[in-house]
Design brief:
Blueprint lengths: L5 H10 L23 E5 L5 H14 L3 E5 L9 H14 L2 E5 L27 H16 L4 E4 L2 H12 L8 E4 L8 H9 L4 E3 L6 H10 L4 E6 L13 H8 L2 E5 L15 H25 L35
Parallel strand pairs: 1-2, 1-8, 2-3, 3-4, 4-5, 5-6, 6-7, 7-8
Helix pairs in contact: 2-3, 2-9, 4-5, 6-7, 7-8
Amino acid sequence: MTGAYDDAVDRALDALSLPRHDLGELPDSPRRFADGAPFRFEIPSTEGPECLDAVLEEAAVLDVPVHRVSQGSGVFMLTDAELVRMAGRASEAGVEVSLFARPCAAWGPSASARAPGGAAMRSAAWGQEQVRFAAQDVLRAAEHGFRSVLISDLGLLAVFDRMKRAGDLPPDMQAKVSVMLPAANPASARVLDELGAGTLNVPSDLSMAQIAAIRAAVGIPLDVYVEAPDDLGGFVRFHEVPELIRVAAPVHVKLGLRNAPDLYPSGAHLGATAVAMSRERVRRARLVMELVERSGAGFRPSGPRPDGLAVPVPPQATGPRLPGATVGLD
């Protein structure tokens, strides 16, 4: 497409080192994780220690290398004892855990977030009090040894980056940008990258050409649902995974579940369901791993305990865990 304004737009995109178009030629991505692997597995909605135990047990049975799990209910929905247990178990297993920094508009009294046109607002921090509380959620996660948090608000990401630069968060703390803060194009992905994102969860229905353009704009890992929950479209894109790895590496191949209930916020009332869903997500990862092997593409995931994972550091029983922290963990 050409038009009267193309030259000005192209100059702006070139000045930002952004692609001019989606990359329909689907170039190979030359990038890799620190260990040289092009992809890793992420199991989302691992809502607490029981779900984490189920993921690790099923991974051992099915011989699936689970590299990262993520949680959606929020740090504040886990007790201190649950956080300690989860951090310790993940540390032993060498698995990254990313906990969601909550709350958000959909969990408060926002009418806009519940309106028919308000879907894009639901994961925003609604007002400065929610920003403050979510930032405290980040600090609490770090205090309990976690080194990765899920962030779905642009302002919170900026606050996270400032706290990290100021030394109020550990230097190895990572921000995993949620699919609810959409990096739907290269320009948006670049902004999130510059604000301190460690990985980007792109919308699950982007085409390969669109994903390739985002990969050309940023070097950080992309997180991609190859099976998306129903509230994110319910897509099942297993057959595209070899091509996704080729175009998007390094990529976290992320297994949600179609035809499954919404767990957030989770708890004992959903315990058996949450655990069963955790096990099934690992089985889905096994399906994808076998499909990639059959494809002949030659892609291999990272092995156990690869470099670059934000694995939790179990907190000490006493003593400060963050700058200025003086209260020991009971």
